[in-house]
Amino acid sequence: MNDELEGHQVNTTTFRGLVPPVITPLTTDRQVDTASLERLVDRLITAGVDGLFALGSSGETVLLPDAARDLVLEVVIKTADGRVPVIAGAIEPATARVFERARQAERLGAHAIVTTAPFYVLVGPHEIERHFRTVAEAVELPLLAYDIPVCVRQKLSNELLLRLARDGVIAGVKDSSGDDVAFRQLLVDLRDAGVDDFAAFTGHEVMVDAMLLAGAAGSVPGLANVDPEGFVRLHRAVVSGDIAGARAEQERLTRLFKIVDAADPATAAGMTRGAGAFKTALQVLGVISTNAISLPLRPLDAAETARIHAILDSVGLI
Amino acid sequence: MNDELEGHQVNTTTFRGLVPPVITPLTTDRQVDTASLERLVDRLITAGVDGLFALGSSGETVLLPDAARDLVLEVVIKTADGRVPVIAGAIEPATARVFERARQAERLGAHAIVTTAPFYVLVGPHEIERHFRTVAEAVELPLLAYDIPVCVRQKLSNELLLRLARDGVIAGVKDSSGDDVAFRQLLVDLRDAGVDDFAAFTGHEVMVDAMLLAGAAGSVPGLANVDPEGFVRLHRAVVSGDIAGARAEQERLTRLFKIVDAADPATAAGMTRGAGAFKTALQVLGVISTNAISLPLRPLDAAETARIHAILDSVGLI
Amino acid sequence: MNDELEGHQVNTTTFRGLVPPVITPLTTDRQVDTASLERLVDRLITAGVDGLFALGSSGETVLLPDAARDLVLEVVIKTADGRVPVIAGAIEPATARVFERARQAERLGAHAIVTTAPFYVLVGPHEIERHFRTVAEAVELPLLAYDIPVCVRQKLSNELLLRLARDGVIAGVKDSSGDDVAFRQLLVDLRDAGVDDFAAFTGHEVMVDAMLLAGAAGSVPGLANVDPEGFVRLHRAVVSGDIAGARAEQERLTRLFKIVDAADPATAAGMTRGAGAFKTALQVLGVISTNAISLPLRPLDAAETARIHAILDSVGLI
Amino acid sequence: MNDELEGHQVNTTTFRGLVPPVITPLTTDRQVDTASLERLVDRLITAGVDGLFALGSSGETVLLPDAARDLVLEVVIKTADGRVPVIAGAIEPATARVFERARQAERLGAHAIVTTAPFYVLVGPHEIERHFRTVAEAVELPLLAYDIPVCVRQKLSNELLLRLARDGVIAGVKDSSGDDVAFRQLLVDLRDAGVDDFAAFTGHEVMVDAMLLAGAAGSVPGLANVDPEGFVRLHRAVVSGDIAGARAEQERLTRLFKIVDAADPATAAGMTRGAGAFKTALQVLGVISTNAISLPLRPLDAAETARIHAILDSVGLI
Lengths: 318, 318, 318, 318
Prior knowledge:
Oligomer: homotetramer
Helix content of chain A: 40-55%
Largest interface: A-B, 44 and 44 residues
């Protein structure tokens, strides 16, 4: 346990609500920009988020050397200062490497660990299940599964998620699978199985209202880096039963999400367009100092930034 | 440059012939089994291979912690002792992490570096090209591209490979794409472009004769761990124009390759079946001490081992 | 126009609400079972559906010879008898063949045509757009696009759908893409573009409440063949603002949807499990006479039928 | 049996050698251009091909109405006049529709039938096997399997092909799978299983020499429409053991194959680029009258035609 957290009360056994995956600000020479990261984290917590997910996909975790990852986690935990729990990604191709990152996250004071199915290495359902079970045994913190087939090539089946949930192997899932049908079925299956305190989070920015209404524990939207207050309003509208208000806010955020189309598709793809847009928006908003991003991605240019500026303007953020 | 290599003559600018991707023997507690690795490397060189590819996919590179990777590379380079060049995999999701592994391989005395397109992180053609160009600038050793879409999700286009080859960014390619049509076209394109010394290697065990006849520089077959002498005979038959002999040897090796079907598909998939079978065969042959394999893979069991034993027997290896 | 429809008032320009894709009952020798089809259609209309989609994927349209398709459409239109509009699938690999089926549907008295992107033939975005535009020019009835990448390999992009909607080429879309994120974005895009009367239907049984709340025009759930009254209740709950009631009904239907898992995965896949389960449930419920299905699919067996019986029982349908 | 064929001797039980998939010439209003088709067929037979495959993928079979398909088959069979066997595609999404096309091909005098796995309809291995077995029972002519996963989404496994071959269900396979590794393994498996007269054809234009050397029965290259004499020379070189000559001819044909890159990728994809290029080359060579192609494909334009002209020139065809 990190010394800074002593005396603070963080509920480390349940995770609910709005938990943004924190992007990793960089300096122009692609080192971690700790001052910007502190500002970003403070802004998120001030806006009212319920937790932070550090070192996730949008946090460029697989692009960062270990030393940079350690620094990111230290800064996020220190800045959060126990106000909200910090969930740390331990995202590596296979089990032994995940052990290393998970234990380091434990040492640095994280409150939970998130890991994906193995990637690069070709595996099937038995290997995936062995992976999660072995990692859970090796770490003391709660373990959440990260379902992101677009990155790891395989979807975690509901059958597997349900079995791991019932056996207490995983405390939750972040669903970035793109398969809302399966997620909806999972929510019903969990209820029918009597698994009550499972943290089923949607990672889909434009489906937060629907999934909260359907019983999701919370959301992990990358876009909340840019507009945390909007997502806080959305969560509160759903909780208070203001369906029309939730839908209106959700639609506003759906329009904001078009910043991920700002980069020129002729020269930018994938994460350049996604995390690259979030960073550029945060730079435009004055939260972080540069929109630098890890190689081989490139920062958005002036024309692309102008498009993002216009969208921020249109949804009332500027 | 590693001290052990001083005084030895290794041609580090061209790579040709049979270059097996060396598997990584483990002890039963999943530590690098250096004694077995030394035996394996010695056996390969004695059989007549032209080079060694350490820390490739079959070498479990993405499953190993950095300390284990360093140890593997040290043992392979020390055991090779300059008799053949050692190509080292620097296989990480993105650029900065590849830098770290590539520089470490340089320090340890490797003769060339192999890297893939980025993985996990979503990228497009521009990001992939920037990745290879940036890595090539950062390392002094020759760089080879590893085309393995089944692991990284994207095929390297012939257009990109040709451009990188012409610009001197890459010195060769290991083709594990499964797309022999594209590889064949690449060989013609390279010739037409006047790129003469490009190391175009096929990674497909059962197509070595065809691809050597078509003009490939060599092969990188995982199965050569098990039967290096067979692959040496195959290469020599093609070079000497003994087409019928080459085909007969190729077909024998194609039958041997059925060891990758030995593991029970109901409980084993992907690399458990592939590298797991190579390791089990090498254990049966007495080359390595155990068929232990990194988590979350599992070693083949007794029934599966018996199937492999029978195949080894049928092709005359026992 | 079919004589039987004269004197009936069917609004053929807007399509909203619950429009089940009607399955095609067969006799044991795999001929269209017209008596069962009449019973099925009558039951759907009596339950309160707003329209019928004949000759869709669940209707086995691509498995039926043309004569059988004509018979199905005739029976559905005659039985509907103008009480609800009938939308007819014209689903063929490419344009000229779609013309033939669309014109036949016009002759037989359908109120709208549904077609997919081309399939089998390899095409890109330009060919897909030309396909929809040419078909729309060739038919007088409203044209709906059917977005079903799992069958045709390509998703219809929101950019294309929006352009076709604005240009009046298509009057709606049935979304069976599995990509609810894109569908949600489309709903917002349509509104922002001022396209008001576009029939955006979700085809996902377990997301009907969420998508109606998000502004979808209606749903086309295959499962409504089995429990039309449940889906009618669901639609009405959403329209009346009874969110809790809608969610409860949606979850009941999500449990019912588990009938598609009843067939043994060791010997049945894909449509055998889907349409095969719908047919078996309808046979158990006494609506159709057999659960026969077109070759190469197989009807569910006694053990599989027992599982479906138990599920029907558990949700109160028996 | 077609009357025209009486008195001619065609061996209908074995199929070997060069069997081009005949493209379907169209008039500018997209009707079958029978005069051009007769010239094309005559040119192929005069060049020395061993058989003809009518109504395959490059023949636009899934894009043509049934009446056009019948006309194509009649013209091909009548023009071949028993000089070489004619294999007819019966390519439809599912079994009953394949029956219809296969029986019509029998009536029109074809010598064998080719069919694919089901498409559009979702199926698994059991449904695919039932499809081939049921079709084979329903037709008297030899049945060949067409393995083309890029169009039907699933590869025919070697296990399935071998079982169907051993049971006499299929007389051969046209491999357009892109998976030459699997095809090579199949050739070895067939030999080991003692299946001697199986017609294993490669459909890959640039791998014909390699696959003939590996024991393939023949090739079905679309490009042979354009340069039948080149492919005849290639086949003869392999048969006569002139490996260097075969490779030189193969490389010339690989260069010619670049005509499929002539169409502008910004406005043309898939079959527009493939069959569209073959047709344009044949028009340039004066064999067919127009390069018209079925909707939604488009004919290549003047600039694209000029690129094809230059390639034809560079390989000595003009």
